[in-house]
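Hello,

Our lab assistant flagged a job as stuck in the queue for most of the afternoon. It eventually completed. Since we weren't sure the result was trustworthy after the delay, we are filing this so someone can double-check. Below is the sequence as submitted and the structure that was eventually returned. Let us know if re-running is recommended.
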Amino acid sequence: MYKHLFKPLFDRLGAFILLILFAPVLIVVAICIFFTMGRPIVFTQKRPGYKENIFTIYKFRTMSDARNEKGELLSDELRLKGVGKVIRGLSLDELPQLINVLKGEMSFIGPRPLLIEYLPLYNAEQKRRHNVLPGITGWAQINGRNAISWEQKFSYDVEYVDTLSFWKDLKIIFLTVKKVLIKEGISQEGVATMEKFLGNPTQKDEHE
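-- returned structure --
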C-alpha cells in the first residue's frame, strides 16, 4: 500500500510544499547562474523513468560553455567551476526536479534517472531499476553516490526495488541530508562527476 498509494501522495504533497518553501533559494540560484554563466539557467534532458518511459528532467545548470581553440567543449572538470561547483556541491542543482516529482515523473527516493543511451547496455537484472519511479536521491546515493562503481550502483538500485518501504525511504532521506552537509561521494577520484557507463564486462567482451 505504501508503494502504490502513500509514497506517490507524500511525493506530490512534499514537492508542492518544498517548491513554495524553497522559492527564494530557487530565485537566488537562478540569478547567480544567469550572471555567471548566462542562459540556459535550467538544464533539460530526456531520461528513462518508470518502465523505461521517457520524460524530461530538470536541473539547474552547473557547467559553463567553455571551449578550446578548436571550438570543442572542454572536459566536465574544466567546465565545472566557481558558482556551478558550489551549486553542485550543495546539490542545489537538483531542486528543479521537484517539478518532476510534482508531475509524477519522479519520486523523492528511487534509482537516479540515467541517460537514454545506457538502456541497451543494461543486463536483465540492472533493467529492474526501472520497476519503480526514479528518484532525486536513492539507496545508491547514500552508499557512495558518484564515488562507487557502476556495478555497485546498479546493485544498490535493484536492492532498493526489492526492499522498498517507508522506513527505508525515511532512512535514505536522513542519510542524504548528511551526505550533502559533508559533501561526501560527489564525484569519483580524478573526475568532476561520474564516468560514462560503457556496459558490463561480458557485454564489452562481446563487442571487441
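-- support follow-up --
The delay was a queue issue, not a problem with the job. The result is valid. The two ends are 46 Å apart (CA to CA). The mean pLDDT is 87.
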